[in-house]
Write a structure and sequence with these properties.
Layout (H helix, E strand, L loop, with lengths): L5 E3 L1 H8 L4 E4 L2 H6 L4 H15 L3 E8 L2 E4 L3 H9 L4 E3 L4 H6 L4 E3 L1 H10 L4 E3 L15 H8 L3 E4 L8 H10 L4 E4 L18 E3 L2 H14 L6 E4 L10 H17 L7 H12 L3 H25 L1
Parallel strand pairs: 1-4, 2-3, 2-7, 5-6, 7-8, 8-11, 9-10, 9-11
Antiparallel strand pairs: 3-4, 3-6
The chain binds pseudouridine-5'-monophosphate (PSU) and manganese (II) ion.
Manganese (II) ion binds next to loops.
Pfam families: Indigoidine_A
Organism: Phytohabitans kaempferiae
Keywords: Glycosidase, Hydrolase, Lyase, Manganese, Metal-binding
């Protein structure tokens, strides 16, 4: 138990003592982002992908109000299968702890807790960002501006306003590195239509940026590594555009707002594409877990 009331699981604690690489993983994609029953299987596969690339996975979440870094299989199963698991962003953490609930942490909350526990690399699917409807900007962005963690993602979902999200990351001082690309990926699609200023080709190059960021100490914030799917693996762009248009229409007609927006659109994609978006989603997460582990290995040596 740290003084922040974060409990680090035994395997993660042992790896940290030995200076071995650790990769943080979020639980919102498990509890709210992926459909059941595949979510639990995928959650385990993500951890396996991290191990296969030489790092120790630390899935983060809340059980009975306690923040855990490195859920064991029973805890992971509980967050994947229980009803009423709360979606926790940063502001929800103290309230949820006092209420002793079970909760899944978003990119923002996972980043903040990971850094508090001394972890510097994190793999997810896609970041939250600026939504297209009304005024809604994910806490993921401002939290990345303040939290020194490297987040490997496939950009942001095309359900968001991708251009506005990139502008906000610039305003907030968060560097975005294209991994093997100079185009920002749109999660299901390889290229969301925006140029990036910087790209890297290897995990070692990412580790060098992380080291420079720490050594300079000029801006204590995060780093986004945008890892696109290969073109051959993306969701058919036509199916994508049609599904997105339908989803946005349903959002309006069903009056969905706030933190329910992201899970609603994800569920719509999974249902409307009859699993095609799910297969793509799983590929993305596994690829990001692998890359994050290789970055963590490079950063630890
Ligand atoms: N992107 C995905 N799948 C997800 C999410 C984002 O591809 O499940 C989740 C992440 O946990 C992210 C959160 O932090 O949605 C953002 O939610 P909001 O827009 O309410 O901040
Ligand atoms: Mn929101």
């Amino acid at each position: 138990m740290t003084d922040l009331h974060i409990r680090v699981g035994p395997e993660v604690a042992e790896a940290q003592r030995a200076g071995r690489p650790v990769v943080a993983l979020e639980s919102t994609i498990v509890a709210h982002g992926l459909p059941r029953p595949e979510n639990l299987r995928v959650a385990r596969e993500i951890e396996e992908a991290v191990r296969a690339a030489g790092a120790v996975p630390a899935t983060i979440g809340m059980i009975d109000g306690e923040l855990l870094v490195g859920l064991d299989d029973a805890q992971l199963t509980r967050l994947a299968t229980a009803d009423g698991v709360a979606k926790l962003s940063v502001r929800d953490l103290p309230v949820a702890a006092a209420a002793a609930v079970d909760g899944a942490t978003t990119v923002a909350a996972t980043s903040a807790v990971a850094v508090a526990a001394g972890i510097r690399v994190f793999a997810t699917g896609g970041l939250g960002g600026v939504h297209r409807e009304a005024y809604d900007e994910s806490n993921d962005l401002i939290t990345l501006a303040r939290t020194p963690i490297t987040v490997v993602c496939a950009g942001v979902k095309s359900i968001l306003d991708v251009g506005a999200t990139l502008e906000r990351l610039e305003t907030l001082g968060v560097p975005v590195l294209g991994y093997g690309t100079r185009r920002f990926p749109g999660f299901y699609i390889t290229d969301a239509g925006f140029d990036l200023d910087w790209s890297v080709e290897t995990p070692e190059q990412v580790a060098a940026v992380m080291a420079a960021q720490r050594a300079q100490g000029v801006h204590i914030g995060g780093l986004v590594v945008a890892n696109p799917l290969p073109l051959a693996e993306q969701l058919d762009p036509e199916l994508h555009d049609r599904t997105l248009a339908e989803g946005l229409t349903r959002l309006r007609s069903e009056g969905i707002t706030g933190k329910a927006v992201t899970p609603f659109l994800l569920a719509h994609f999974h249902a409307a594409t009859e699993g095609a978006s799910l297969a793509v989603n799983i590929r993305i997460i596994l690829r990001n877990a692998d890359l994050a582990a290789r970055i963590a290995v490079a950063a630890a040596t």
